[in-house]
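Re-running the complex after MR caught last week's input typo. The corrected sequence lines follow. Everything else is unchanged.
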Amino acid sequence: MAGIRLSGVRKSFGDVAVVHGVDLDITDREFVVFVGPSGCGKSTLLRMIAGLEDITGGEIAIDGRVVNELDPKDRDVAMVFQDYALYPHMTVFENMAFSLRYRGVARAEIRQRVEQAARVLDIGHLSQRMPRQLSGGQRQRVAMGRAIVRDPKVFLFDEPLSNLDAKLRVQMRTEIKLLRERVATTTIYVTHDQTEAMTLADRIVILNHGRIEQIGTPEEVYETPATVFVAGFIGTPPMNLLPVKLGGSGQITLGDRTITLPESRTRVIAGMPDVLLGIRPEHLIWHTGGEPPLLSGHAVVVEPLGSDTLVSLDIAGTPVIARLPPRLVRKAGEAVLLAADPENLHFFDRTTGRRL
Amino acid sequence: MRRAPTWPRHAIMLAVCLLMLVPFYWVIKTSLTGENIYAWPPSIIPVNPHLFNYVDVWYLIPFPRYLLNSVIVTIMAISGNLLFNTAAGYALTKQFPGKRWIVLLLLSCMLIPFQATIIPAYLITSWLGVLNSWLGIALPMLSTIICIFIFKASFEAVPRSLIDAARVDGLSEWRIVVRILLPLSKPAIATNVILNFIWSWNAFLWPLIVVRSPDMQTLPLGLARFLSVMEDTTGALFAFVVMVLVPGLTIFLMAQKEFIRGLTSGATKG
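Corrected-run output:
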């Protein structure tokens, strides 16, 4: 069991910098998910922690020991790869036992540890099969089993579910969550799927262009996104972001509509020339009278999902999506009036992208 | 749409195969009878076949000694190739300064005919003091450039994540090659073994230059000597040829599937 500390970690490939000074503290037994779009540097960061990539600058410490110069084998980490990386010429048992053999573990103990891991993952009946004889889900379990038997200080998962079909991915996600409760080890999990990040993580690290945009619990990054990027990345559909103009006495102008906000909400944006208003699709509600609506327009696209309906609108040239109860809007072209609780509005500096 | 019958195609292929096998059949038939190969009309079926020619070859000349020399030299050549080509092939899968120039150098060396290298090769062998020895005969055949590239292509086809997984599992570079890459490169190994077996087994010019005593002669040299010292040798000569051919054919037949996969690896999307 161990914590991990990254201090000013940088990585460049030639002249191209891909990770720009990442600082991060991961506590013992914490499950941290690196999430971000393709090319954001999350896998590179993971590989640097594993020792599979050299570090251009900064320091990585595992369990208090700086590991910059250590080989992967000496870092006591186990890794699960995107394509599982099972040795095709070895049986499931041999795959799981392989690393233990090179660490001088006694034969009887190897057998016991492999059988125990196989029991945890329910793959005991597969021990004599070759990887090619396994389904995607079974291969994934074996890959995790190979990591578990090592009993390492840190687990590293590099997009382990991205090769599975949608149904199996949900199932395996649940299994990883259950497994986590049984095997409490410090874990870093890389994914580009924000649902995986939200459901698995103790804390999420959102990366963009090799920089950390925000670190926080799933609730924090969802409810108080630190930047426009996080607001647009976390959540399905993402947060609506609308340019607004500030008026006097708590008024904002959104397209041709002027709305008065409570003073508590406008205080943060006072004096800001360029502001983006953010609101989650589920926080847009059907306007039923009283205060003037926040948004009004005509439905451009209506997507019934069963439990609710996604309605797309065009507000002064900016697309907006609302998640509404089913059957309120049935087809495109219908007039839509939407309101929102001012407490659910987010404001961002349009120039810096930072939350206000 | 009605499909065209396949039997004409098969008949043509069968005829071509038979045509290719005729020389082999003729050699075996003559080795069993010793009949005049210029006889007309030629007899298709062997007349009074016997194995005396094989017995003659075994006892009249030092065939076992030639065989031993050939086997040892070939084993040394194959072992050397597997060792050096594996190491060089793995090195070429890595990125390092000057790699491009090394690849170019290797490729350009392939354009130089062996005959052009004989004098420097002889001088080096002499300088090392291994003339007229098994090592001296095998020395220029201990590594072949084409086989380095066969290993390189094979290693590059192994997913990088497997190598990363092995590294995390605690394997050194050499063990990664031995425990992960080589077991996944059986076609490349088979190709190396077969090609080097053929080249080493059939080598004539270099052993002719480097060997000085009859007891170090290999089978091809023995065959040439056999022709010069024996008279009326048609049957025994052909028996000799069969005995030289059999090991090579056996190895090829045993490894032909892997051999063909090795030669065509990377040619199609896998």
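None of the earlier attempt is carried over here. The domain at 51-263 of chain B is CATH 1.10.3720.10 (MetI-like fold). DSSP finds 13 helices and no strands in chain B.
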